[in-house]
Amino acid sequence: MRKFSILIKTLDSTNKTNLKVEALSNYFLQSSKKDMLWAIALMSHRRPKRPMTNKLLRQWASEESNLPQWLFEESYHIVGDLAETISLLITQDNSSHKISLTDCIEEIISLKDKSDEEKKKYILKRWKCFDNYERFVFNKILTGGFRIGISQKLMTRALSKALNIEEHIISHRLMGEWDPQSTTLEKLIINPDPKDQLSKPYPFYLAYPVDLDLFSKSDVGEWHIEHKWDGMRAQLIVRGGNFYLWSRGEDLITKSFPELKILSEQLPNGTVIDGELLPFKDGLIGDFNTLQKRIGKKNISKKDLHENPIIIMAYDILEIGGKDIREIALFERQKKLEAILQKYSTINSPIRLSKYMKFENWDQVKKERKSAGKKKSEGLMIKRKNSKYEVGRKKGNWWKWKSDPKTIDAVMTYAMRGHGRRTNLYTDYTFGLWNDGELVTFAKAYSGLTDKEIKEVDRFVKQNTINRFGPVRQVKPELVFEIGFEGVSLSSRHKSGVSVRFPRILRQRHDKKITDANSVEDLKKLLV
Q1: Phi, psi (deg, nearest 5) at residue 500
Q2: Sign of dihedral through CA atoms 76, 82, 88, 89?
């Protein structure tokens, strides 16, 4: 546990990639295979289930630190992180206990069926025998993930260095569902059973926001250009006669989309397709909001299948006949994908080919981008024709050129403190639009302002608070902001009756009074 705490502290204290990789690699080389596996799991957001609520942890920490609950809560909101707040308020006694990372986590897991009193006794014991940073890491295991700037890419690079296995192989083996309690480092990475790899997706290849200089430096004919469909990125796998569907977030979502199972009968074994899940009814692409109604549902009814049918729009093919073809050029993969869909899919299959478009010049591309919204697209994907399918976000070959955001002018009504270095600043804002003479909440946003602008807004919030709700302050409705968003749809779950996708602040409108802000009706007019 001490070694792992030192690792986390080292990773958190540097921004240099090489130092992070070296620290990780050294930890892997010096640790037991069990500790190594749990470290990989924790940094892959696979921590054990919480054995108690944060409310109980706050209560116990308040009691142990001899602080009244209100003062502990105020301290928590100022620090902005529960794990850090507890580690600062609780002090180590004279005891010290060496324990491995694995043993510590197994103790935490064993708390599940114990009484609250037994849990409290154990937690207090650990708090008191750990030093400050060990206590912080212990609390992080209990409460949440480690925000230490470690990407999967950095971790796989360090594992590659420690285990002498190529990075892309490790990336693939770490994909999908796995649990440190039911596997070993040997089975997962070093010498996996081929049968365990049947359901494994490939790491997704991600695009960068477009570099507009691209247009003046290259011929449009060098690029494969298609629409960026507004759905949910997914990988469809047909292996061993079974069908698997994975989200980009590495969630197995097969059960949420049973209408795609027919593809396991239509497509040949050993086929892996990268595509986009889209709502599709009566021959038309629907809104993303419709897709959300299906995501996360445990049981899909016949009504769901009828009212919110789904297709997968195929972008790319990564495996044919069980053979990994990611290394061959995109235009060759596209030919193979088109041939397979023409041969095996039927007119009623829940799969479509995302067709690329041909242009004479970049002006035509710009014109197509402007009409993307009418086609239920977010913009365009621009991919180099000879590019291979890589791992993660690599700059140079794949670009996304999103449509310009829709905008609306709204009034700030609430503000909440931020996190990390912005813990003492109000950086998370709630915005309202006019509806029958009242401001109705329609969105929250926290990105888009400079540090200087955030400090100015923070000063306003502190001087113009009219009500408090824990860390949230209601403010005088005086500031108007231009809010940008990707899409808009009707929603019965929102008070305004409308939801927006990916809202962010574009700028403060110093030139406008709150009476100049838009209304809910203005927002509804932006529905496509």
Answers
A1: -120, 155
A2: positive
Give the DSSP letter of residue 44: T
| DSSP letters for 383-406 | EETT----SEE-TTTEEEEEPPPE
Q: Would you say 479 and 457 are in contact if contact means Cβ atoms under 8 Å apart? A: yes
Task: Please report, as a single letter, which amino acid is at residue 478.
Answer: E
Alpha-carbon distance of 146 to 523, in angstroms, equals: 38
CA distance 399 to 207: 5
The Cα 330–Cα 333 span in angstroms is 5
Segment holding 362, helix H or strand E: helix 362-370
One of 1.10.3260.10, 3.40.190.10, 1.10.150.20, 3.40.470.10 is the CATH number of 2-143, namely 1.10.3260.10
Retrieve residue 395's tokens: 């700059």
Q: Helix (H, G, I), strand (E, B), or coil: what is residue 233?
A: strand
Comma-separated ranges of CATH 1.10.3260.10 domains in the chain: 2-143
Report the distance separating Cα 238 and Cα 322, nearest Å: 9
Q: Give SS3 for 31.
A: coil
pTM of the entire predicted model? 0.73
Condensed to tens digits (0 to 9), the pLDDT of residues 425-439 reads 899 999 999 999 999
Its sign, for the CA torsion 19, 86, 457, 429, is: positive
Closest CA to 177 of 232, 247, 108, 263: 247
Q: Which residues of 364-376 are buried (b: 16+ CB within 10 A; e: fewer)?
A: ebeebbeebbeeb
pLDDT < 70 regions, the chain: 95-96, 145-149, 296, 420-421, 528
Q: Report the 10 Å Cβ neighbour count for 329.
A: 15
Q: How far is it, in rounded angstroms, from Cα 336 to Cα 333?
A: 5
Delimit the CATH 2.40.50.140 region(s) of the chain: 406-524
Q: Among all chains, which residue has been given the structure tokens 């997968």? A: 312
Residue 70: CB atoms within 10 A of its CB come to: 9
CA distance 39 to 208: 29
| Closest by Cα among 175, 234, 239 to 202 | 175
Total number of residues shown for the chain: 528
The pLDDT score that the predictor gives to residue 304 is 85
DSSP 324-351: E-TTS-HHHHHHHHHHHHHHH--TT-SE
Q: What is the fold, at CATH topology level, of the domain defined by 406-524?
A: OB fold (Dihydrolipoamide Acetyltransferase, E2P) (2.40.50)
- Rounded to a whole number of angstroms, the distance between the first and last alpha carbons of the chain is 54
